[in-house]
Known about the structure:
The protein has 384 residues and is of the alpha+beta class. It has helices spanning 5-22, 25-32, 74-83, 89-92, 98-115, 138-150, 195-202, 212-219, 222-227, 230-235, 240-249, 261-266, 292-300; strands at residues 2-4, 51-57, 62-68, 124-128, 154-158, 163-166, 169-172, 175-176, 179-182, 207-209, 253-255, 271-275, 285-286, 303-307, 312-318, 321-334, 337-346, 359-362, 364-366.
Amino acid sequence: MFITATHRERMAEIVRTVTSVVALPAYRQAVLASAPDIARHDPGGAIGVFFGYDFHVTEGRLGLIEINTNAGGAMLSIALARAQRACCNPLQDMIPAAATMEDAIVDMFLREWQLSNRSAPLRCIAIVDEAPQQQYLYPDVLLFQDLFLRHGFNAIIADPSELSLHDGVLRHGQTIVDLIYNRLTDFSLEEPANAVLREAYLQHAVVMTPHPQAHALYANKRNLALLSDDQQLQALGVPAASRDILLAGIPATERVDPTHAERLWSERRHLFFKPATGFGSRAAYRGDKLTRRVWQEILAGDYVAQTIVAPGERVISNQSQLQTLKFDVRNYVYEGSVQWLAARLYQGQTTNFRTLGGGFAPVYVQSEDAPNNGPTTAEPSGME
């Protein structure tokens, strides 16, 4: 995938601005007041690894459609970048530096350990997910394990049920676990299967990253309604320049209130409906595809309605056959700085990995005067 340097800088500016707003005490108080109790627990200094800011990018428009706090696929996209070979000198400088990013990942986990005021060396990292071997992105997990092992850490892949907690020490078998790289989608650790992990987190028996507070502050989709509402931003004390950046970069979003059902139904063709705590496009619906039955489920649930920003399109060829794919651009972020870019190409209503020829793709940033191989304008057609 190709994007321009201007697109890259605009995305980075939005990321920095969101980070600055989340740091405001008024914002944190407002968001955490309605969050699960565990989100108010002090995470002990860890910030959270692999925030994912997902953008729709076209020549004429750019929109932040979602923020995730356990964005997967980073190592897969790095492997793809490593596999690229430049066909000419001008392209050589555009190929992202995979080795540099791998070093940054290791440094990021060490930084999380240091921020948590742990005096002992970081020895064991457990990559935790529900039935990890059955997850679609298990190859990504294996690449992480290999990266950690190559840098001298003991790296374990584990289901939460394989962990035990005794006397304030979290173990996997007989091995003491220092840090959890959390890939679970039970963001508040509410499920019974995650009880041990929850208690270890509450006891500060382990450093967990990302953690429930990070999800509540960044990834709950209700936050996008706040971040795209000028009046609420003013009430939080957000400076005018920051408000302008957010309002221009985040599609107008609102919580679905049954008292506004008639208006939202009439405007549905321009809206995308997402569950506030959902992930991976599950139970997300493009407004013009809604049935009355699904609409009633949305009204009864906890949903947001987001103005559609069309995804860009990329035309690729498979020998003689041309294929047009939609795409989004994921910014992997740590401490408010963009570390890595990856594109996800797909067909259909939402981002998916089922499209033949789709999936992750490396992102090349081209200068403004380079030939236009970049995003093209598409008709509104849904988003993750």
